[in-house]
Design a protein that fits this description.
Layout lengths: L2 H24 L15 H15 L11 H15 L20 H19 L10 E6 L7 E6 L20 H5 L1 H9 L6 E6 L2 E9 L14 H4 L5 H18 L4 E5 L10 E7 L5 H12 L2
Antiparallel strand pairs: 1-2, 1-5, 2-3, 3-4, 4-6, 5-6
Helix pairs in contact: 1-2, 1-4, 2-3, 3-4
């Protein structure tokens, strides 16, 4: 078989993958579902899984240089799906596998896979701009500034996050394993993410805090703890004042409190953007602990 035939077979297989993914999406329905879940047709899902496993065994996908960068990304995508465990399959201990969060976990995984497949199917090569986020600058709780930042390029453990992938600059991280691994080594604990700000990759430290507004759900079942909380505006003001001292200790780190819409439950949060390679391991630990102690 010639290289051209190999490439054509690989592309045909991938096109079939995209068709089956579209069929799966078109079969979806949320009728009668709780927790904002989506039901998809079992036949369509089965066809997609079967084709994925056929692609995994396809030798044309074992030599990505023959089919170009799209096939290389697709090969990684196919293998990632094929490595997922299905409900009931034995895990490494021989016990039936079940996602930790049940249907919610399975649904979230499926949505991320659909996002990733859409990026591959568009063959996108263009970069995307870093979106604008409103933040309060250090020492100025009543003022807003604009940060241009692509958030959540990874999760808290360094795995690439394909949610809303078409609007993220993920390709440089996919294509430059050295860059990705270097950034991963600069993450600290479980309060950091790989991000890109103003076109430069780095690490975002995020420490969340509680306010009366963000924890209103606890008002009835834990009234004593709820009574210890302060209003959102007061928490933001206190964070910015304390971070001004951190800004003196870490002069090249950028500090801010983001708009509450950027944080789960609209909580106040302290952000610190650390450009790639700026801090040592000891300095990153010092910064992380200082943010948690605000």
């Amino acid at each position: 078989m010639t290289n051209k035939d190999t490439q054509e077979n690989a592309v045909n297989g991938l096109n079939k993958l995209f068709e089956l993914a579209d069929a799966l999406e078109n079969s979806s329905s949320n009728e009668g579902c709780d927790a904002d879940l989506t039901v998809v047709g079992s036949a369509q899902l089965w066809n997609l899984l079967q084709h994925i496993r056929q692609l995994k065994a396809d030798p044309s996908l074992e030599t990505p240089e023959r089919a170009g960068s799209t096939c290389e990304r697709s090969r990684a995508f196919v293998k990632r799906i094929a490595s997922l465990k299905k409900w009931g399959e034995p895990d490494e201990n021989g016990k039936p596998f079940e996602p930790s969060d049940g249907l919610d976990d399975s649904h979230s995984c499926l949505m991320d896979l659909i996002d990733e497949a859409r990026v591959i199917s568009t063959h996108a090569s263009k970069d995307v701009p870093d979106p604008m986020v409103k933040v309060h600058p250090v020492g100025k709780p009543d003022e807003w500034e604009e940060w241009h930042i692509s958030q959540n390029l990874t999760d808290r453990w360094g795995d690439l996050n394909y949610h809303n992938a078409g609007n993220k600059p993920l390709r440089p991280l996919e294509e430059d394993s050295t860059l990705l691994e270097r950034l991963r080594t600069q993450m600290w604990d479980e309060m950091t993410f790989i991000v890109r700000k103003d076109g430069k990759f780095g690490i975002l430290f995020e420490a969340e805090f509680c306010s009366l507004e963000s924890e209103e759900h606890a008002k009835d079942h834990d009234p004593n703890w709820y009574a210890t909380l302060n209003p959102h505006a007061e928490v933001v003001k206190a964070l910015l004042e304390k971070m001004s001292r951190l800004a003196e200790r870490f002069p090249d780190v950028q500090f801010a409190v983001p708009d509450k819409a950027q944080v789960v439950n609209d909580r106040p949060a302290a952000w610190a953007f650390v450009p790639d390679g700026l801090l040592t391991e000891d300095q990153r630990e010092e910064l992380g602990k200082a943010l948690l102690d605000l």
